[in-house]
Amino acid sequence: MRRIKPENQIKRRIKELNDIFSAMDEDHKKVVTPLIDFAAHMEVNLRKLDEDLEKVGFVEEYSNGENQTGRKESTESRAYSTMIKNYTGVIRTLLSCLPESAQPAAEDELGEFLRSRMKR
What is the residue extent of each domain of the chain? Predict the structure, then answer.
């Protein structure tokens, strides 16, 4: 299976998100366009972090000298946790800018993305 380059994934997702948020008035759209770009970048990075987590797991061994060893949360896990919280905040901000009539459809589509991440 051929992998899509990250930059193409981002472009595709920006287009999808612009379609989702097309009901937004032009003034709001100008302000939130950078958030749409950030959301698309975060989604691609979250997918990459998810793949990394599958390989290394949520816990890693550490050694800080002769007698200091143990287990701790993995770097990938911390990065994923931070990014998913930031992504959720960006999406909430975007959804709040939509007219109320368009919010349920956008929430359904974005919720599907989040559910697909949790299935792994």
Answer: 24-118
Are 32 and 24 in contact, with CB atoms under 8 Å apart?
yes
Residue-level pLDDT, tens digit, the chain, 120 residues: 567 888 999 999 999 999 988 888 888 888 889 999 999 999 999 999 999 999 989 998 888 877 888 898 999 999 999 999 999 999 989 888 887 776 666 667 667 766 675 655
Q: What are phi and psi of 17, to 5 degrees?
A: -65, -40
pTM for the whole structure: 0.74
Spatial separation of the C-alpha atoms in residues 99 and 23, rounded to whole Å: 7
**DSSP letter, residue 24:** S
Q: Is 16 helix (H, G, I), strand (E, B) or coil?
A: helix
Q: How far apart are CA 1 and CA 105, in angstroms?
A: 31
Give the number of other Cβ atoms within 10 Å of residue 21's Cβ. Answer: 21
